[in-house]
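Private note to self, pasted from the team thread so I don't lose it. Backbone tokens:
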């Protein structure tokens, strides 16, 4: 049986695209950890699921539970309980929709928007610290690589579109 590297992956050849993809995955894991750690330093501690829900509602104000559940890829009962907790924390409001009084719309409160802004600031500072610790040539190479990655990603056909 092959030895496993970080995060349980099987090490690939050091010069192959699989190895590069593995190193990118490791970097993403590190970034996710940095993101999570920064979020836990906010005045309101949020789980990653709560944070995702708040971000989704920030992007789609007035979404209903079904839309939020679809966006989070979670079941309605789970999302309903998640919203109960966010509402109890004063981060979310449930309101009857103007067009259909039986439909409940979800909106961030001012406090919810403030918490998201605080988390974004903490994350930005944490990322800036890491990037500041890099050599200038490495920062430039990272920026070039990220731009190339984004461009290649945009050219790739989507899984849904074919």
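Design output:
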């Amino acid at each position: 049986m092959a030895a496993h590297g970080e995060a349980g992956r099987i090490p690939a050849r050091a010069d192959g695209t699989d190895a590069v993809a593995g190193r990118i995955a490791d970097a993403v894991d590190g970034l996710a950890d940095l993101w999570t750690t920064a979020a836990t330093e906010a005045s309101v501690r949020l789980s990653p699921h709560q944070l995702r829900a708040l971000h989704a509602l920030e992007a789609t104000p007035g979404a209903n539970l079904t839309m939020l559940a679809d966006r989070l890829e979670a079941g309605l009962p789970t999302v309903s309980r998640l919203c109960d907790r966010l509402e109890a924390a004063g981060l979310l409001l449930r309101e009857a929709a103007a067009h259909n009084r039986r439909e409940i719309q979800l909106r961030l409160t001012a406090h919810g928007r403030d918490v998201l802004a605080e988390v974004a600031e903490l994350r930005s500072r944490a990322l800036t610290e890491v990037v500041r610790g890099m050599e200038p040539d490495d920062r430039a190479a990272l920026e070039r690589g990220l731009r190339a990655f984004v461009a290649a990603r945009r050219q790739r056909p989507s899984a849904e579109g074919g």
